[in-house]
Known about the structure:
Blueprint: H1 2-23, H2 31-55, E1 61-64, E2 67-69, E3 72-74, E4 77-80
Antiparallel strand pairs: 1-4, 2-3
Keywords: Membrane, Transmembrane, Transmembrane helix
Pfam families: DUF6111
InterPro entries: DUF6111
Amino acid sequence: MPYLIELVLFLLPFAAYGLWRRLHPQAEPSTVLLILAAIGAVLMVGGAFWYGVSRSLPPGMTYVPAHLEGSRIEPGHGERLR
């Protein structure tokens, strides 16, 4: 069920654009709208790149996943290679 919701949320903007084109076939998107969409796409890609770079482990480290130690959960972390 969650995959269906994700699929619907992904397809919703495409369906809205298709509906808009169907109702207004002679109209074109305004230049301001296209510029704002391009700025949004650049910000999205830049934010994803920044997040990936800021959350990555430094060279020479390996990720140790979360695991149980006794009765408590040890969170995932990075350790130096041995």
